[in-house]
Give the backbone structure.
Amino acid sequence: MAEVYVQDGESLESALRRFKRKVQHEDIIRDAKRHSFYLKPGEKRRLKEALARKRARKKRRPFPRRET
């Protein structure tokens, strides 16, 4: 769980920025979204396979060359 304590003389905005950075680093939002609804095991497998296909297709794509 992300905890941020406001230091003496520190503005609330900077403490909020530190908190947001810590939450993003710990993947709390992504984890909450993933657990917000139930996925059947088959649906989870199909989603995982689709993401793997997408990553493989992206890797196969030719790297664009810049003309100079």
In short: The chain has three helices and no strands. The chain has a mean pLDDT of 91. The first helix runs from residue 12 to 25.
